[in-house]
Amino acid sequence: MVALQSWMEGHPAPVNWSFADAVAAKSQLIALKEISQYKSEQAVFFSVDDIQHLSLPFKFALICKLSKVWIYLVDLPVVFFYKIALFSISQLVCNPLKINKSTAIVNQPNVTRFCIECDSTKELPSRVWVGKVNASFWQSISYDDLHSYCDTCNKVGHLSVDCHLNSLPTVQQLQHEAPIQPQQ
Fold it and tell me: Which InterPro entries does this chain map to (predicted)?
């Protein structure tokens, strides 16, 4: 317990601690909350200080906004099917990761397919400009299983306008409700 208290006071954490240990230790430092009522339902409320205290272990946690996406380039000239050419084209969109086997062996010469790692928060282009010696062209891009990213809850799978957190009452709305009475 002494190690825990010294860590809470700003001293280094014990060497063998995991992130889960730190979270468990922090959550034990607030008192158990009383059961209250909100709109005739049981509820529990946390103060701003409680939330700030509980969020300390997550201060340096990373939220990954990167996702892997497969790209299709339809009717790309066969001369560009080499990995170096495809990666050069794909870096116009995002970071190239790999090409699929059919593209590598030119099994389907009308479609190239490769995987990129992209930032889910950014809009991806629908086409790129490919220049060659005698003629340049716009190459259209199709994305397979492109996921939406929500800036509200930081989750992949839906947009902010569809986020369930937008329908939750705000602190100001809760404060204008009838006073909350703890259960006896």
Answer: At4g02000-like (IPR040256)
Looking at the structure, tell me whether residues 90 and 51 fall in a common domain.
no
Q: Looking at the 3D structure of the chain, how many domains does it have?
A: 2
Global pTM value: 0.52
Domain that holds residue 81: 66-150
- Please enumerate in sequence order all residues whose Cβ is within 8 A of that of 70, keeping only pairs 6 or more positions apart, or say none: 100, 113, 114, 115, 116, 143, 144, 145
User: Per-residue confidence at 162, pLDDT binned at 50, 70, 90?
Assistant: confident
Check whether residue 142 and residue 76 sit in a common domain. Answer: yes
Instruction: pLDDT band for 5, please (50, 70, 90 cuts).
Output: very low
In the predicted model, is pLDDT for residue 73 greater than 90? yes
Looking at residue 141, its pLDDT comes to 93
Q: What's the mean pLDDT in 37-51?
A: 83
